[in-house]
Amino acid sequence: MKGINFLTNDQDQKVAVQIDLEKYGELWEDFYDVLVAESRKDEESVPLDDVNEELKEDGKLDEDV
Questions:
Q1: How far apart are CA 52 and CA 61, in angstroms?
Q2: What pLDDT, in 10s, does the model give residues 38-55?
Q3: Which alpha helices (DSSP H) does the chain contain, by range?
Q4: How far apart, in Å, are the Cα atoms of 27 and each of 23, 32, 56, 62?
Q5: First and final CA of the chain: distance in angstroms?
């Protein structure tokens, strides 16, 4: 596939991939987002109202939001 290069080890097993970001950058961002979401799936969640309140207290969010 043009723009995709696999790196192999001594046993000729694929161990890494190089992606042409000019060609596949948008696709890579989607793939990366899925990886991040998967890595965080077991983290404790925080209610949005609590996050908004903390941001307001820190002056990082307008009071009328």
A1: 7
A2: 999 999 999 999 999 999
A3: 21-39, 48-57
A4: 9, 9, 35, 34
A5: 47
